[in-house]
Design a protein that fits this description.
Layout lengths: L1 H7 L6 H4 L14 H47 L1 H25 L5 H30 L3 H18 L1 H14 L14 H28 L1 H10 L4 H43 L4 H11 L5 H17 L3 H4 L1 H22 L7 H37 L4 H5 L9 H6 L1
């Protein structure tokens, strides 16, 4: 019995075998399933970390390239404004007028004629709007010298009332011991010379804009067919069609809605100017409607113009500021109550992003760039919604740069 137990017992390790694995450490008693899983995870940890680091490095390079493009793009677009400005404006006009051309073509007219009529209708609206403002402005131009004299007189009265501020300024200047420097006057071209130099370029850009817009509107059907049928993958075709439809719906609906709101604002301003006895109320209404397309800057310019005109045409400063104050109250109600309730959350954008886009495109293309800033921001927002919004703040803390967009989650 003792012999059997001795034969069944495992043999004791020899002294030489104990150090076979190195260091004299004992081997584990048994290797179960848990140890096999941990070994497999240990083998997959290193490649997973390498892949995550590679993705993060590529995301960092994409972010740096995007920032460099954002900083370098203004110089390229401003230098080549004769080419790029008509192209961008034509794209915006194509997005805006394509639905109108589709409705005209649905009446049975050829595509070329429908595209031409849509563009012609837009030109008529622009000419009527400019005529509403420019014609009364030309009539008021004769009274401009008298208005300037009154503004100078009111400024002298205000300066006399605030003479104590000038005395404090003089005392500070003497206390600081600042010396008056030599005044340098630079010779600049007159306004008429600047207009004469800029006219050929403006005419060329306008012609290029409307020619490009016409051919783009006429080619809209072929573009849609190419986007749907020219892709090898059906999923990519559907995604491209969704992007085009989303961009067109957002930009066209925004411009149409804002245009209706601004026309209503112009009507209210014209009625208020007529009630207050301001000259050329139709001109002020049209100017308010046009300037309201410029976020923040347009209403401020309108307040300044009404203030200067009121001071130059009335007997007292307070009475002259009444039209500007009335318009400022109207704009406060329109910007904070009417427009947000009509546009809704779909067109709600961060005011900081609007100001950045406004200053960015104004720096590149001036007033035209300011008018195009919000439609371009809407286009970029629609594209980013489909591609994926970059998680800039989360990327700094180790998160992914492009998380899954809500549209991709719904599709999945």
């Amino acid at each position: 019995m003792a012999d059997r137990l001795t034969e069944n017992e495992p043999a004791a390790p020899r002294p030489g075998e104990a150090d076979a694995d190195g260091g004299g450490s004992a081997r584990p008693a048994a290797s179960g399933p848990g140890s096999a899983v941990s070994a497999k995870d240990a083998q997959q940890t290193a490649p997973g970390r390498m892949a995550a680091q590679e993705i993060r490095l590529i995301s960092a390079l994409v972010l740096i390239l995007g920032l460099g493009l954002f900083l370098a793009l203004p110089f390229v677009l401003s230098i080549g404004s004769v080419v790029f400005l008509p192209l961008v404006t034509a794209i915006i006009l194509t997005i805006l007028l394509s639905p109108l051309a589709d409705r005209i073509a649905a009446l049975g007219l050829p595509n070329v004629l429908a595209s031409f009529l849509a563009l012609l209708l837009f030109l008529v609206i622009v000419i009527v709007a400019l005529g509403t403002v420019l014609q009364p402005a030309a009539d008021l131009f004769d009274s401009l010298p008298e208005m300037i004299d009154r503004i100078v007189l009111r400024y002298g009265e205000l300066r006399q009332e605030l003479a104590w501020l000038a005395q404090i300024n003089e005392q500070l200047t003497r206390a600081l011991g600042s010396e008056s420097g030599r005044e340098v006057v630079l010779a600049t071209p007159t306004m008429m010379e600047q207009v004469a130099f800029a006219t050929p370029t403006v005419v060329l850009e306008v012609l290029l804009t409307f020619l490009m817009a016409f051919f783009m509107i006429e080619a809209r059907v072929r573009l849609r067919r190419h986007l749907l049928l020219g892709r090898s993958d059906f999923g990519s075709s559907i995604k491209a069609a969704r992007v085009v439809r989303e961009v067109q719906d957002r930009v066209a609906a925004y411009i149409l809605t804002v245009s209706i709101i601004n026309i209503c604002v112009g009507i209210v301003v014209a009625a208020g100017a007529w009630a207050l006895g301001v000259e050329a109320p139709v001109m002020w209404g049209g100017l308010a409607a046009i300037l309201n397309f410029l976020p923040y800057i347009g209403p401020l310019a309108m307040v300044a113009l009404l203030g200067l005109f009121g001071i130059g045409t009335t007997d007292t400063i307070l009475l002259g500021l009444v039209p500007a104050g009335a318009y400022l109250a109207l704009h406060a109600v329109e910007a904070n109550v009417v427009t947000p309730s009509i546009l809704g959350a779909r067109f709600t954008m961060n005011p900081v992003m609007i100001l950045i886009a406004l200053s960015y495109f104004s720096w590149i293309w001036g007033v035209v760039g300011a008018l195009l800033s919000v439609p371009l921001l809407l286009m970029l927002t629609a594209l980013i919604d489909h591609v994926g919004r970059p998680n800039l703040i989360g990327f700094m803390f180790g998160e992914s740069l492009f998380p899954a967009s809500p549209i991709e989650i719904e599709d999945g």
